[in-house]
Each structure stands twice: as C-alpha cells, then as structure tokens.
Design brief:
It is a single chain. The protein is of the alpha/beta class and 273 residues long. 32% of the residues lie in helices and 23% in strands. It is built from eight helices and ten strands. The longest helix has 18 residues.
C-alpha cells in the first residue's frame, strides 16, 4: 500500500457517480476596496455516498468553499452543481454542522433537534421518533428535556449533529465540527460520525485542520494550498472500515499522514528547525 499524493493536472473526479460537481469555482472578496482572492479555480466532484475531507492551513478558503457549495455565498466564477441543479441560492436539502453548535438557549435538546422540522414546516409528530433515535445513537438519550446551558461542549455538538441529520438530507456539510472539543471527546465524536455515516452513507464534505481526522474519516482527502486556496493534492484512502482509533498507529495510516505533512512542509507551513 502506498500513500502517494496525486497532484491536480485535471479535474478531480469521484470514483462514484457525482452528487456534487464543483467546476472552476473561484471566490474573490473586496475588503476596503482591495481585491482578495480567497479561492483560485477549483474543480472536483463528490461521488454519491462519498466522504471527502478537505484539509489545509487557516485562511486557505476551506470554509469559503463549503459556503459556496451550500449556496450561502455566490461564486465569483465557475459553478456548483448538486444533482444536476446549479446552485445560485441557498441549497435546502442539506445538513450543516459548524464548529460552534449554534443551539438556541431557550429550546430543549429535543426542540433544538426538531428546529429543522419547525423551520421547514414539517410534521413534528412524524419526526420526533427520528430525533429521539438520533440522540440515542450519539449517547445522549435521557437528556431530551435539558437545555444547552446544562450540557457539556461535546454533548452540545452531538445535538447539533442530530439537528443536521433529523430531516434525512442526502448531503452533509461539516465545517471544523470537532475543533473546539477536548481530545477525548473529539475521538468519540469522530467514531460517532463514522458509525452514522456507515449506516446512512450520505455524501459528506468535511472541513478540518486535523490531518489524522481527515484521513480517519475519508474516502479521499483533498489537500489545499495556502491562500489563494487551490487543490494542491488528493489522497485516496485505502483503509478498511470500520476504522478503529488504534489504526492511527499503523504503518499504513502513518504513510498517509506523512504524505500530507510533506505537502505542508513543501508549502513552508511546517518546519522542524
């Protein structure tokens, strides 16, 4: 097993039928009248049911790319297409999890999960069993009547994950969802997410700064360059699932991690001297 990074000379295509197509997407901002290129042209596909991690340095445009896919901000050039639909406004058939849980303090755990249902005008009675089942799957059954202020950070983020999944979206977008958690809680959240993904096989775009997290969860890891962000390399992850935490100590996992670190070293982002 090798861990060679594939450098982009052509569009990065998914091995599975494409669910999301990102075609020549650029994003530029003009703060204080000056042009700031956040993303150079980016082209790649996410296959149906594929888990893709994007890892890169702060400020490289990872979060910007996720917002473009969600339709929350417009592209400067290029297009995002989801299931044949060009995204020109917020895409609604999606679940989104951010680094901050954004739970509403005045709503209980159950009501926070069902916020998706209320906002969409769906039948709460139909979705409440789903919400309760999701809370049980992530280990917080029995806390349905608690409020966010009574929960730990990890529990709050579990609630946010359930909220993103309760309406059963085919696409899940995650922006540094575990970045604010302690190491032990983060390990468990990664395992919880893997289990939920293996059960439902949703298409996932996962943003992270963590090399091990990106490799552990993904079918493919997209490595981005410093700003302006572009795809520097793509790493196909050939590791058996379900993946155990001990796998991080294996030679195969180490080769993947070393390949990503070498790319960052080439950018001048890591220096041991």
């Amino acid at each position: 097993m090798t861990a060679e990074l594939r450098t982009p000379g052509s569009p990065v295509e998914a091995a599975r039928p494409p669910f999301v197509r990102i075609a020549g997407v650029e994003k530029a901002y003009r703060p204080r009248g000056r042009a700031l290129q956040a993303l150079d042209p980016i082209t790649f596909d996410l296959g149906v049911g594929e888990f893709v991690s994007i890892v890169g340095p702060s400020g490289c445009g990872k979060s910007t790319l996720l917002m473009l896919v969600a339709g929350l901000i417009p592209t400067t050039a290029g297009e995002v297409v989801i299931q044949g639909q060009r995204i020109i406004r917020p895409y609604t058939d999606v679940g989104v999890v951010f680094q901050q849980d954004a739970l509403l303090a005045w709503r209980s755990v159950l009501d926070n999960v069902l916020l998706q249902i209320d906002v969409r005008g769906l039948d709460r009675r139909r979705y409440e069993p789903t919400a309760r089942a999701l809370l049980a799957r992530v280990g917080i059954s029995g806390f349905e009547s608690y409020y966010p202020g009574e929960l730990s950070g990890g529990m709050r983020q579990r609630v946010a994950l359930c909220r993103a999944l309760v309406h059963d979206p085919p696409l899940l977008l995650m922006d540094e969802p575990f970045g604010a958690l302690d190491a032990l809680t983060r390990d468990q959240m990664v395992l919880d997410l893997q289990r939920l993904w293996l059960e439902a096989r949703k298409t996932v775009l996962f943003i992270t700064h963590s090399i091990w997290e990106a490799i552990f969860l993904a079918d493919r890891v997209v490595v981005m360059s410093p700003r302006p962000g572009r795809i520097a390399s793509v790493l196909e992850i050939d590791l058996p699932r379900p993946r155990r935490l001990g796998m991080r100590e294996s030679p195969a996992f180490g080769r993947y991690a070393a390949a990503v670190r070498q790319r960052f070293q080439a950018f001048g982002l890591l220096s041991e001297t």
